[in-house]
């Protein structure tokens, strides 16, 4: 078996590379064709299997949704002063905001582990430059 990290030849039944000690059967993340917002609810173990590029897209999506929830929450809070809004609506909007905030922090944590930082903004320029680097190897 050939190590995907250092390229050394190893025995057929080896678990780790004899040269660099990397696990031989560990699969590297591959880019997905589609990333959608519902995937943010996957457990940490599954999210950590995502490619870094896909995590950046997912971070972008969850940040957008979090912003929408924040704006809705603020609108509901301000509206409750003017008209009577039931407490269930207020609780729901706050719960959604907190949920997306927690999911965002999980993804940011995985990215910090991989990249050493969390991007302040995930825009098309960042994604395109990363895609070019990935395609060029």
Task: Report on the architecture of this protein.
With 137 residues, the protein is an all-alpha fold. It has 2 domains: 28 residues; 100 residues. It contains 4 helices and no strands. The longest helix is centred in the middle third of the chain and has 31 residues. This is Zinc ribbon domain-containing protein.
General shape: elongated
- The end-to-end span amounts to 22 Å
The largest β sheet comes out as: none
> What is the average per-residue confidence, as pLDDT, rounded to a whole number?
88
Q: How many structurally independent domains?
A: 2
Total helices: the number is: 4
Protein name: Zinc ribbon domain-containing protein
Organism: Metabacillus rhizolycopersici
